[in-house]
Protein 1
Amino acid sequence: MTALQMILPRPPAAVVFDMDGLLFDTEALYLKAFHAASDEGGHGLTTEVFMRTVGGTWPTVQTVLTQAVGSDFPLDDFRAAWHRHALRIGADGVALKPGAMALLDTLDALGLPRAIATSSRPETARGHLTAHALTHRFHTVVAQGDYAASKPAPDPYLTAAARLGVAPALCLALEDSHNGVRSAATAGMMTVMVPDLLAATPEIAALCTFVAEDLHRVRDAVLHAHR
């Protein structure tokens, strides 16, 4: 799809961002930490297993791990090791994804409200936003514990729209995961996937307004819609 085809059906009145893998380059970090924890415990977990956890909360991850390894898998020990390795690997900071600042600057210029809708814990979201001095750039953060059902259910995105006071159909949702796309599309939002570790399958692409290579392309589409 060319840049000219990356056109939004209507000007967005608000933008809702996923966080991990979309705004911050965290999924690659989590993958490295996943393998480190697996190696430490001698579990033999594969990248394919990790990919099935992307965009999910811990209950989803638990299900994936027990399906892959068995019901006797030491979930709590693995979770602690995964978290420890993630902190070690990310000690020097987590990078912003390309185009993130340019997009936020454009949203400021247009006066568009924005939110984060993430499957991560609130303290994790606060940590990443604080590290990049971005807390004030978002009007609300919807995180784990703020909704009844996690992605792929629409609850995180519907909660974000309600807090912003904007109808879901007028919101632009930005996602990198399959479950995130399903969540945003089911919520009725204009959904754009910016792939990170997961490519857009035909099923996922069909749920999207378009698939963008990075957030620079999203910025171009937002500017075009508001001309």
Protein 2
Amino acid sequence: MRFVWIGLAVIVIGLLVFSLLRRTALAPAPKEGPNLPPLPKVPAGGADHGLETTYVVTSIKGAHDQRVISRGLDKRGTAIAAVRTDGVLIDRRRASTLFIPTVKLDGVRTTSSLVIVQWTHGGYELETGLRMRNDAERDRLHDRVTALIENQGA
């Protein structure tokens, strides 16, 4: 009887190890998005102090499993998002700064904690997710990007 319990324990431990491997090392990687041309350069100019945010990822619009790996856009981290008159500046720590010119902005939407900026570059429709600290900051960033897009047509 003792060997039966030892055998069951070994099987359970084996299943746990297999389960952990499947979720990590053996899990399919996210699909790689397109190889983008060089990103727009950040023009000289002022901006407000911006809002502290967490840059989540840039992916293909409507296909969130296709993350854009090129140009370092797959690196999650702390950032400052500033809405300027010429576009949206996302100054990422330990990663390259992302600047989205006003003319490339297509829209903006929110989820419970994210602001998702929709834009085009190199023939691709992209979405960049920014996780805000609270609802007030989320709404503020959403409203400022929306105003920037609306003023573009005026």
